[in-house]
Design brief:
Elements: H1 2-19, E1 24-26, E2 36-39, H2 43-54, E3 76-79, H3 88-94, E4 103-107, E5 114-121, E6 124-140, E7 143-161, E8 168-174, H4 180-193
């Protein structure tokens, strides 16, 4: 019993230390990326292309993705005004008349959407997860503005398997959106729209 008590105390101390801000680093961008863009495509056409492309099955796991444009390889679950579940999260979005044409993106498989280029613990990039609302506005018959709105941004800050029982301890840390993932989504949409002159993705140095 004494040994179990000592182990429990050690586990508690490890959890407390690892959940602390010791070693947590934020790499700042000199210039933020755009989080909205006007595409040269009709809204209905572009919207259909996004749904078809973003819901495609993807085989690559998070560790297989290249450091830039990770989101371009992700598969998403997409909700819209016609197929959202009656939960508070979606209700807040789609009950607003201005969002009737919007799309809401949730990762289909791995909750992480990228190995963060901004948030690190010591030398290690933290897995970043978030959900994204694509707010769509028709500018005219041939142009569509899309704004990427980020919800629930967080990083997987610490986790381990407790006593090898299969029960994992996982701690997520809330963070600020970086504009990197938002613009990666816009770049993927730009590829669907055939855009040629979108600015390059800005990353921390």
């Amino acid at each position: 019993m004494k040994k179990i008590g000592i182990v429990a105390v050690l586990v508690f101390l490890v959890i407390t230390l690892c959940n602390s801000c010791i070693g947590f680093r934020t790499k700042h961008l000199k210039e933020k990326n755009p989080t909205s863009y006007v595409f040269h495509a009709p809204l209905t056409v572009l919207r259909d292309r996004i749904v078809k492309d973003f819901t495609k099955s993807r085989s690559e796991g998070i560790n297989d993705l290249i450091s830039v444009q990770e989101i371009s390889k992700m598969q998403w679950i997409i909700k819209d005004v016609n197929n959202f579940k009656n939960t508070e999260k979606y209700q807040r979005v789609f009950e607003k008349p201005e969002n009737i044409l919007d799309l809401y993106l949730t990762p289909a498989n791995n909750p992480a959407v990228s190995n963060s280029k901004v948030y690190k613990k010591f030398w290690k990039s933290l897995e970043y997860s978030a959900e994204f609302q694509l707010h769509m506005t028709s500018i005219n018959e041939g142009e569509t503005k899309i704004e990427v709105i980020t919800n629930n941004p967080e990083v997987l800050y610490f986790g381990f398997n407790i006593f090898k029982t299969g029960h994992s301890y996982v701690y997520f840390k809330e963070v600020e959106p970086t504009t990197i993932e938002e613009y990666e989504i816009l770049l993927r949409i730009g590829n669907l729209a055939g855009e040629k002159d979108m600015p390059s993705l800005k990353l921390p140095e």
